[in-house]
Write a structure and sequence with these properties.
heterodimer; A: 219 residues; mainly alpha; MetI-like fold; B: 224 residues; 8 helices; elongated
Chain lengths: 219, 224
């Protein structure tokens, strides 16, 4: 391995990691929103929305992100929906993640005894208040481990963004291997940068998990 | 009705080719599953040993393989092994290797989790009844572990099938590559082929993974 080469590649990888992180965070934020909405629709058994959410969860969880991205990026323009690569990346990640997040929220909601909601309602809270102030805070503490696992999973999944020509870490590594045959250095930096992104998230996840374990009441 | 590019699939052997590509993807994942299930069980058993060296080594292997995106692992095997060890792996072999290593790690963790989820009093009660170590494992621990394990490992199979879509990126000709070829070849006659063909690939993956997920969900509900 050549130190000079590694140093000269660093700025390229830094930019790529930044792109991975930025798009990853946006996708994760959207997937949390979608997941929460779907889980709420499922939990409250809203007539049509609940069935739609169930179908969406199955579709998003049973198809690979790479295929979803190909369809979004190469397929949709053919019927007149034009987007750019970054928007496709975020949309794909949100579509994939939404289903996983919904399942994580659902597992939390299901763990809360029905008596909690009924007690809240009997105290005169509205349905929404009961969900927001009583059920959700407890459910979240149960949902944190799967939610954090999903965050790590989604950040890992961003590695396929290079397929829709986003210049992320994979793209940079492949580019440098193809251009200069500096395979060892490129792959070393690739692994190092992914560790740099993913290790802190994974460690933070297990710390958070430990802290929140007893937050639930009667769980 | 605008042309949505589905008709390309009915030209010549296009649909059969697409299915053939899916077959390649499935073959890779099934071989990897077949390799990683027994190895994963072994790893899981090793991980429950108390010896510090085995603990640290298995932990390191597990954490590295699980934290790296699978695509990075594929790149390491495909490009890295050639450069570092001079192994000229074919794309398909590199993918089977990577998915086996990854699957072993995931399976190992599932087995470890299932073994550790058996409460201690099960061991103690078995000992109180006069069962020896092997008997306890055979008659008490194993049946409970297996029930817990089967739905989880079926889920792992769908994850591995979905992940095989990545092998496109190291040049394996699988379903997505075939789709690209079909779209390219019909660029003039049906310019909208990308929509229909990619949607079909999407649905094909769903058609393969969904029944397996349903089975896992069904078993989970019955056994957990």
């Amino acid at each position: 391995m050549d130190r000079q080469v590694i140093l000269s590649y660093l700025p390229l990888y830094r930019d790529a990691a930044w792109l991975t992180l930025r798009l990853g965070c946006m996708g994760i934020a959207f997937s949390l929103l979608i997941g929460l909405a779907c889980a709420a629709a499922r939990y409250r058994k809203t007539p049509i929305l609940s069935a739609l959410a169930a179908a969406y969860i199955e579709v998003s969880r049973n198809t690979p992100l790479l295929i979803q991205l190909f369809f979004l990026y190469y397929g949709l323009p053919k019927i007149g929906i034009r987007t750019n690569a970054a928007a496709c990346g975020v949309a794909g990640l949100a579509f994939l993640g939404g289903g996983y997040m919904a399942e994580a929220f659902r597992s939390g909601l299901e763990a809360i005894p029905l008596s909690q909601k009924e007690s809240a309602l009997s105290l005169g809270m509205t349905e929404f208040q009961a969900l927001w102030h009583v059920v959700l805070p407890q459910a979240l503490s149960v949902s944190v481990p799967p939610l954090m696992a999903n965050v790590v999973f989604l950040l890992k999944e961003t590695s396929v963004f290079s397929a829709v020509s986003l210049m992320d870490l994979m793209f940079t590594a492949k580019d440098l291997i193809g251009l200069y045959y500096s395979t060892t250095e490129s792959l070393f930096l690739l692994v190092a940068f992914y560790l740099l992104i993913l290790l802190p998230v994974s460690v933070a996840g297990s710390l958070l998990e430990r802290r929140l374990r007893y937050a639930g009441f009667g769980v | 009705m605008p042309d949505l590019g589905f008709e390309v699939l009915w030209k010549g052997k296009n649909f059969a080719r697409l299915l053939g590509g899916l077959g390649v993807a499935l073959r890779i994942s099934l071989v990897a599953v077949a390799v990683s299930m027994p190895l994963g069980v072994l790893l899981g058993l090793v991980m429950t040993r108390k010896h510090p060296a085995t603990r640290i080594l298995s932990r390191l292997y597990l954490e590295f393989v699980r934290i790296m995106p699978q695509l990075v692992l594929l790149f390491l095997a495909y490009f890295g092994a050639t450069r570092s060890f001079g192994w000229d792996l074919s794309g398909e072999f590199a993918s089977i290797l990577v998915f086996s290593l990854w699957g072993t790690a995931e399976m190992g963790d599932l087995v470890r989790g299932a073994l550790e989820s058996v409460p201690r009093h099960q061991y103690e009660s078995a000992a109180a009844l006069g069962l020896d170590g092997a008997q306890t494992f055979r008659y008490i621990i194993l049946p409970q572990t297996v029930r817990r394990l089967i739905p989880l490992s079926i889920n792992l199979v769908t994850r591995m099938i979905k992940t095989t879509s990545l092998v496109l990126m190291i040049g394996v000709v699988e379903v997505l590559k075939v789709a690209q070829q079909i779209i390219e070849a019909n660029r003039m006659s049906s310019p909208n082929a990308a929509f229909g063909v990619y949607l079909t690939v999407f649905l094909l993956y769903f058609a393969v993974c969904w029944p397996i997920s349903l089975l896992a969900g069904h078993l989970e509900k019955r056994w957990l």
